[in-house]
Amino acid sequence: MKRSILIIVALLFTTSAFSQNVIQLFNNANDFFKLLQEEKFADAHATFDDTLKTKLTEDALKKLWFDMATKFGKPESFDAIQSRAQGEFFAITVEGKFSNGNQNFIVGFNKAQKIVGIFLAPSKTATAYLKPSYADTSLFIEKSVYIGAAGKQLAAIITTPKNAKNFPVVVFVHGSGPSDMDETIGANKPFKDLASGLASKGIGSVRYVKRTLVYPNEFSTVYTVKEEVLDDAAAAIAMAKTIPGADAKQVYVFGHSLGGMLAPRMVSTAPDLAGIILAATPARKLTDIIIEQNQYMFDLSKDTTAANKTQLNEAIKEINKSKISQLGTTIKPDSVILGIPAKYWADLNAYNQVTTAKALSKQRIYVLQGGNDFQVSKTDFDLWNVALGKKKNAMLKYYPTLNHLLSEQTEKASTAQYQIPKSVSEVLVNDLATWIKTK
After folding, report:
1. Which residues on neighbouring strands pair with residue 408, listed in sequence order?
2. CATH classification code of 137-280+352-437
3. Are 133 and 151 in contact (CB under 8 A)?
4. What class does CATH assign to 7-120?
5. What average pLDDT does range 33-56 have in this prediction?
6. Which pLDDT tens digit goes with each residue over 193-213?
7. Full-model pTM
8. Positive or negative: CA dihedral 330, 333, 339, 344
9. What is the C-alpha to C-alpha distance for residues 173 and 270, in angstroms, rounded to an integer?
10. Strands across the sheet containing 394-399
11. Which of 177, 327, 336, 433 is the most exposed place for a label (fewest CB within 10 A)?
């Protein structure tokens, strides 16, 4: 369980995209393996902190390296590919390729950027993407395009139904953290499922790579959700209106999790949107959601030791620092809270997604929530229902078996569930298609 505390923070805000020092840590990790490849063991050993130097001597490091070569063959390349916060440390995952096989490593760094640990990452068996049974590829086509300004463009895919005219279009907006255009999580691709399912029923869509995945350097200084989400969503909405055959007056935003939180805010820059779909969307502040997630992980572990309770309390104390709504003399815009600039938190906390959505009168609203979602709970759905349940332009539906990735499950479980391929619910796809086409 010790590794589970704050795991949801890592889920929501992957450190590789947000930490101000992560690029340097990536370089440090790559340089360490370069020294090993060049057999400069003394230099490599010098990158350790004092404790690790004692535990893993230079000779032991040399033996470890040669043992790896004996097992996997000649070392070929090493690339840092991922990072996450582990308490006061950063864990950098390095992809290692050898002539006879691959082995990933996890390198731990302290705040002084000294290596505090080296571990072999457990091997993972790649699971192939499972195409939904409801996706009929003969009924739609996909086209690769780009959105955004020159030099900062993002790859995107436009999916359009064949032989259709004046069809609606859905723009997919991701949840928190870096993500590809399919919103790939483990073995699942929710946006790809939804795009193909809706296209099979005559509805087009636009999905795109999230900026934090391909341009992490842009987030090494102060930023807010405007730079992270809103600007690119606006560009995708504008593109949706220009798709040949599409009805420019029937463009919808499908916001997942954080994307759903921000969907009502998007209407201010795109007032002609036909509607917004809020999928697994928090009605509360993100801080409250993260605390609830960590409490859930604590309860799931069934580890009630004093040490574990202390760790949970310490985690909650850190998470609560993100509740700021104003900046001041002690909290500056570039102050870092949970790896995120203070300005980001202040901007997000000053925004009320429920109040903003409630004020909408021209746009249709669909709120959906799964009962097996451990990241966003029924508490949020109930709050949405109180605010929007009596509005004529709103529809709310609770799906008891869906998880956060919108697939049908038998229990809430944990993030391990995301490694098992399971398509987005066909019932949900049918409901969305019916709702979108009903004017």
Report:
1. 402
2. 3.40.50.1820
3. no
4. alpha beta
5. 93
6. 999 999 999 999 999 999 988
7. 0.76
8. positive
9. 14
10. 140-147, 154-161, 204-208, 167-173, 246-256, 275-279, 364-370, 394-399
11. 336
